[in-house]
Specification:
two-stranded antiparallel sheet, globular, Rossmann fold, alpha/beta, 6 helices, 9-stranded mixed beta sheet, about 40% helix
Length: about 260
Amino acid sequence: MKETYIKEHVDIQPNNPVLIEGLPGLGLVGKIALRYMIKQLKAQKIAYLYSPHFPYFVLVNKKGNVRLLRGAFYYYKNPNGNDLLLFTGDSQSQTIEGQYEIADQILSFSERHQVKTIATIGGYRMEPKEKPKVFIAATSQEIIDKALQAGATLSTSGSPIVGTAGLILGLAKFKKIGALCLLGETRGYLPDPLAAKSVLEVLKSTFNFELDLSGLDEEIARAETMVTRLQQIEEKRALHAEETRKEEDKKTTYIS
């Protein structure tokens, strides 16, 4: 395999579709959001994306079978409006060239299926004090206004959006496709279903599709328990370090 390519295995005729992308990144916000959407909407798998720019290992399943890392496209027939094309995967590209190549392939796929708007999802590193905010950046004011009405917050000027989620926005204009990026506030060092839930609330309101988000509550509770445990461990470590420092100070002898 010398270049990124998409293998389609189901022929679809979507109605004015929106493509939503979410790959692993900060807090796995995009990955968690897309995984949840695919499961809840019972979306149909329609294509795989393979790339030599993914990490160089294979995944082994419970039966001992192996497969290459890949991305996957899914299709959901939306009874309330725009159909949805969903894209997620095992990993982001490990090279700069691959980031551009994969983003370009996603855009070409979107063109072939008459996609007019793409939404990408990622994480925004922050220590949220309450419900995580969702920051919006987009290619047009019309899209920005729509997301702001759905509860998003305008992204800070000059903030870079790294990886596929950002590159798609930059390259979409060359394809004449509208694009927006929704970034959920996240600590970033652990999977963050709470940030994913905040993003999905904005997303479903922006594009008018039904999605019950209560299924994320159990994941959120487990994640918060893990954060609490890590904070307790860090507090104990800091206390132990302080006690050690005091003991060392007592042993120090000063000669004048």
